[in-house]
User: Fold this.
Amino acid sequence: MKSRYEAAKNVFIDSVDIDDYIELESSVIAYQQLQHSMDKPLKMILLFGRPGTGKSILLNRIAEKLKHQKEIHYFDTPAVSEKEFFHKLFKVLTKKDLPKNTEVNFSALVDFCKNLRGKREIVILLDEAQMYGAEMMEKIRLLSDSRAVKFVVSLHKTEDEDLIAKEHFQSRIWEVIELKNATKQDQTTYIHKKLLKKNLFEIANSIKDKDMKLIHTFTKGNFRECNKLLFTLFEICEYYDKNEPSKINYEQIPQRIIEMAALKLGYIHV
Amino acid sequence: MYDIKPLEEEWKRYNKKKKRPLYLGSAAILFLVILSFAALKYNTADIFKSSEGKNADTVNNTANSQSSSTLRDKALTKLEVKKPKEDIFTETKPVTVVSDNSNPMESAEDTAVLNDEAEIKKPTVKRARTKAVQKRRKKMHLNIIKTTSVSAYKDVEKRFYESHDTDDSLFLARSYYNKGKYKKAEHWAWETNKVNGHIEESWLIFARSKVKLGRKNEAIRVLMSYSKRSGSKKAKNLLLKIKNGAL
Assistant:
């Protein structure tokens, strides 16, 4: 028999699927800010925040939303090498595949971009940009100087990554957008909306405000952590629902199970 | 799905650990509360102790005062008890009372002359001494100074003129009559009758004195008038005696 918690569990599988995007007050602000920045004659935009604050899904959403209005390309996974990155970039810029056994000449690429100025306005969304090395970032900067290609660089906010940001972008970045962990209210809305999107009203209702507070305490408002916790939580609920129904309260998610999930994920320790 | 049991066990341990500060806090609060109560109780006990001490003193004092008042009462009772024995003690404000035992068989009222030296002593503070005091009180005796001192009679007369107490005037009438001083007896009996005309004894002494002074008819007239007014049997008997010349 299929448990009611199975569907709930699957809701919180972490993904950057545009269908999973939840409009929150904070995310709407970030989206509008990013869109507004992209309309400006900026060379580079830095989007940064701690992992799980919604950078990727924001980039994904803006790419999806603006793909018919702008020439926008989303590089979701960083290229493992410089060669691969320029191959991808070559294809975006020229709309052609690079012939086999050939390499991109960076100088020629910069010249090509310069020739595009005024003709095309290309936006490249670079997710996980902390994976790119310093040399690579320098080349990206040179390309952005052509003013034909605009880069939105998404970075994890760590001490090291801050250093990268300082070294490579501080003087060139015209706009900085920082994403922060969700407030309790935003996180509550996020969880409810996620469940309601899949018509799991009863389960959404069984997570009371007190539970939300506890979840927020454990996850610190981080969306990725929240997804992980709720996935584990509903996984435990699913187990009890199938094997020991007496241990579960369908009206209200027991605090015990939330704590068990937190223990499982290492948010708390014995 | 992973095995849930280890996770449950882990949660139990976590829950215990989580609640430990709560238990410790509760225990600490409980301890503080008990300590506060103990301290409060100690202070209260201390206060009570001191106040009990005070109370004890008060009780002692009260007891003493009670015992002293009891003593006083007992003494008075004693006095009253003694009354029928031989003398009647009349407590008088001045300690001096005149006694006339010229006729000891007469009613005690006519006789006692007392000087109550057993004026009640002030109660002592210590309860322990109370019994001793009581014993002493019990042993206390009245020094009856029997005197025929003229000054004593003068004092009583003086007091009568100040207070118009018929007890004093009647005492004087009785005493003088017993002494054979019939003129004075008649005078003090008359003084008594002027203050209170319903005292039988006073009228009888008045009539007897008149008879003794040789004014038998006056005595008969007085007695007839009194017996008619009061219906006194003693007056009638005395009247018969006088008429028969038996007095």
Observations:
- The longest strand of chain A covers residues 149-156.
- Chain A touches chain B through 14 residues (CB under 8 Å).
